[in-house]
Amino acid sequence: MTVTLADVAARAQVSPATVSRVLNGNYPVAASTRERVLKAVDELDYVLNGPASSLAAATSDLVGILVNDIADPFFGIMASAIQSEIGGPGGRAGGERLAVVCNTGGSPERELTYLTLLQRQRAAAVVLTGGAMEDAQHAAAVAAKLRRLTEAGTRVVLCGRPPAPDTGAVAIAFDNRGGGQRLTEHLIGLGHRRLGYIAGPEERTTTRHRLEGHRAALAAAGISEDPGWTVHGRYDRTSGYEATLELLRRDPSLTAVVAANDSVALGACAALRESGLGIPDDVSVAGFDDLPFSVDAVPALTTVRLPLADAGARAGRIAMGREEPPPGGIATVRGELMVRGSSGAPRQSASA
Amino acid sequence: MTVTLADVAARAQVSPATVSRVLNGNYPVAASTRERVLKAVDELDYVLNGPASSLAAATSDLVGILVNDIADPFFGIMASAIQSEIGGPGGRAGGERLAVVCNTGGSPERELTYLTLLQRQRAAAVVLTGGAMEDAQHAAAVAAKLRRLTEAGTRVVLCGRPPAPDTGAVAIAFDNRGGGQRLTEHLIGLGHRRLGYIAGPEERTTTRHRLEGHRAALAAAGISEDPGWTVHGRYDRTSGYEATLELLRRDPSLTAVVAANDSVALGACAALRESGLGIPDDVSVAGFDDLPFSVDAVPALTTVRLPLADAGARAGRIAMGREEPPPGGIATVRGELMVRGSSGAPRQSASA
DNA sequence: AGCGTCACAGCAAGCGCTTTCTATCCTAGG
DNA sequence: CCTAGGATAGAAAGCGCTTGCTGTGACGCT
């Protein structure tokens, strides 16, 4: 029914071994023979049987990319960059590898299951992107899996995710704490003293780090934070919208709202506008990530730009073994503060 | 070195066959035996060898999702919906399948190569999303590949992509032409007579269909179009920005700009604003797709909402064989006109 | 009591490819 | 002219798993 290596061999009048060698190209084969084989391959429309090949060679060309939410450009941009370096078809890398992105939806179980599936497929490399869950049990389970993967020869790279000690995984982490701190410092510098904070889901490293940065800036400025100034939610626009309404209810005198990321910030802007508040005249807004649409918001969003594409590309190269891992297997990438129209001095800055 | 089925069998004191059956769970195994096996699996940290399993069973649990641009939420949303139906880990589907999304970057060769790679892996199903290239040669090559895939038992579903006749592929297409037409009719109804159009890349079905709808509306209203009113570009914000500037240069009297999609529309808005033109007072703007951020633009974008998530979910179910394909293997999904703040009557509507 | 039937469990034959080891043919040096 | 050695090609042994077919008791029916 289906064409096999043997069929090709028969047609080309050579042994299966020779066909295999032509196809893998790492063994001397006479030019004339090679041509005959390729011709047969073409005529027969032969397609290599991946599983059989992987089984026999004990390797696979699968590279897994785990993302929390594939519909979120934050992950899309990283995934895209990683994939372009993995090579995949058309990439500048040599061998064709199947770069696959797996959507965990932020669920720990799915993350674990995907990792198992990838391990099952004997993936050549795995890149995990974005924040990790902080649940201790889950973290341990993931760490164990990663360790098993690296031990089996799979290269594991964390991109935009904190290091996982003793797992053999290389980490390109984002300096979320520092970015959050600089962002809030900027607002404080503008004169703000009452700042609301819309955080991401609890138990997420990214959430915690950004929040810590924010609080560090507040503390450094001697501002004591009201517990009601922080609201947790998801990393999406709706969440930002609702959280802002809640924040306004709790303390109408807030002069700035710092959001967990740009999408949340956009939702915040919508809520403020609908509440009749001007941005930044009445309330300043700040986001995080600097996704492409952020500059188009009106007013344009003040945010922290994360080098998503660069980090992804680097992670991809490391995963492919085409770049040396950073010393210690850990690199931290800083974000750049982008000051735009959505932040300004509070109206009554003198009163603070 | 690595643990194999035989190791588990030895430890559980059963034959490899029994272990396999326990793991696949489609053969009667006594409860006590099953438990013994599972215990051994657990103790040994056994992970099935995917390639070996696929080879022996002549099937695989890989499902491929091809997207043009993974960083674009348009594709991200569809991919996410497809994946959630594929099951993947945690999905409501039974068997665990590895849903993988492949980023073609809109390149025909990459598309073909990914298709080959998927064929090589004996993928259980493949979903192709988004518009297709109209290059005849490439289209034929893709069609041939799809035919070969379906013949080999791989289910092929096109989502948001025109049907591919005689390939055995099921298509869930978007009514881009109708949507484009209704959108432009809306603007004409508002009184616009001079409309610029920022189209996507040429040679893309989506681009052509939307443009055809636009022109059909113009024709129906008896408006003869100036060739200079159409500019082609990419499906991104920058392209929209530049194209708008170009459009304005060609004909400053345009009262409306229709964009290929929402990202392009956002770029158009930016260009208009920078040119000192009010939206919609001076120029109305319309997008397409209704991505999440579109409602947050200021003013909110008038656009055509495509049921991306629904279509993706449906495509996913069909790919899994959990839903009957539509009659004839083709379904067309309509978009819904969303009238928002970015479109309004032209200033001098009476003059037209 | 005798035998057909189940319910399980094991045997063994591959699945289609890679790769080590070997065989063969040439070319070239002695 | 003979042979060492390089360049190719082939034979065959798996890679780790699935599954059709073959036992083998235990059970229930007549």
From TrEMBL, chains A, B:
<feature type="domain" description="HTH lacI-type">
    <location>
        <begin position="3"/>
        <end position="57"/>
    </location>
</feature>
<dbReference type="InterPro" id="IPR028082">
    <property type="entry name" value="Peripla_BP_I"/>
</dbReference>
<dbReference type="Pfam" id="PF00356">
    <property type="entry name" value="LacI"/>
</dbReference>
<keyword id="KW-0805">Transcription regulation</keyword>
<protein>
    <submittedName>
        <fullName>LacI family transcriptional regulator</fullName>
    </submittedName>
</protein>
<dbReference type="Pfam" id="PF13377">
    <property type="entry name" value="Peripla_BP_3"/>
</dbReference>
<keyword id="KW-0238">DNA-binding</keyword>
<keyword id="KW-0804">Transcription</keyword>
<dbReference type="InterPro" id="IPR010982">
    <property type="entry name" value="Lambda_DNA-bd_dom_sf"/>
</dbReference>
<dbReference type="InterPro" id="IPR000843">
    <property type="entry name" value="HTH_LacI"/>
</dbReference>
<dbReference type="InterPro" id="IPR046335">
    <property type="entry name" value="LacI/GalR-like_sensor"/>
</dbReference>
